[in-house]
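Subject: Re: docking follow-up (pyridoxal-5'-phosphate)

Dear J.,

Thanks for your patience while I sorted out the input files. As discussed at Tuesday's group meeting, I've set up the holo structure prediction with pyridoxal-5'-phosphate included as the bound ligand rather than trying to dock it afterwards. The sequence and the ligand SMILES I used are pasted below, so you can double-check that they match what you have on your end before we go further.
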Amino acid sequence: MAQFRVIPVSEPNFKGNELKYVTDCINSNWISSIGKYVSKFEEVFARFCGTTYAVSTCNGTTALHLALLSLDISEGDEVIVPDLTFVATANAVAYCGAKPVFVDVDPRTWNIDPSKIYEKITGRTKAIIVVHLYGLPCDMDAIIKIARSNNLKIIEDAAEAHGAEYKGKRVGSIGDIGVFSFYGNKIVTTGEGGMITTSDPKLVEDIKMLRDHAMSKTRRYWHTALGYNYRITNVQAAIGVAQMEQIDSFIETKRRNAALYNSLLQDVRGITLPPEVDLCKNVYWMYSVLIEDDFGVTRDEVIERLMKNGIETRPFFYPLHQLPMYKGEFVCFEAEELSRKGINLPSATTLTEGEIRTVCAALDSMRL
Ligand SMILES: *Cc1c(COP(=O)(O)O)cnc(C)c1O
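The structure tokens for the complex came back this morning:
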């Protein structure tokens, strides 16, 4: 019997020099966190984003943690976070002893709603983390205006948006500091890995210290603060360098696939297509749609039936204010609605046109 391929929601694309560079690490014995690929990966990534610096970490969550620490976020501080995001965005705030304050998202963009930030700012608010959800940049002009007038720092959680652009600027270069993930399902992957982008040399110095147990540069084993081991390995960075050689084609493929999905799904009643925003380049990390009530089949049932047809999908994140550790005073109606209706369709760069047509046909045929 022929092997049955499940159409994946995501899968790594290792068609470049990944194996060659990893083999070089093994052959040269440079497998730990010192080696030429680490500095090369950082250089290439900074150039790609348009920042002066990029500092690698062992995953996106630790990148967020270090970014917050470098901005002196600590016990008693509050940090504004969108309610609809992956849990790591808020967890990193909690690791600092600070409080994530959830703000509802805009149903037209699925990103944090700038008009709802003001009412959440208190005397303790120190920063805003914006998340470019599923690859679409946030309304950065509005957010920068709020941050400037309230003396807040901006962290861009760009874990899902490598190469996305807002008014011609790449994400990660717009706020004070940017954060990326290279988890296996991200646009560029190193298995596990992360990156911090900034043009502020002072932040870079702090981040590099904290990443390496805050060891003194001049006195070995003298640690000047509570630091961490959040370093990436040369082996992971080797994969990253090979992936960065292909990032333009990954993004082009994601956008081409999204355009095909849009054209095939635009007339299906009960399906809302992903947002498009003027002056933004969406990289469609996950091509996502909303299953509206008039589709006739619930989102969860859609997921189940697609799986039976060999099509893998994901539901949207839960609103973070509903999770046990963050349950509290927050009301975010739009995030709840999107979370209930949203679905990530197969978005791998390895998909064929035929597979995308299969997904759309399966969706269309199950509508009541
Ligand atoms: C993936 C992701 C992260 C964290 O990345 P890890 O590398 O898995 O730690 C953070 N924020 C968002 C929005 C993400 O999607």
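A couple of observations from a first look. The chain has a mean pLDDT of 97. The chain has eleven helices and 14 strands.

Let me know if you'd like me to rerun anything.

Best regards,
T.
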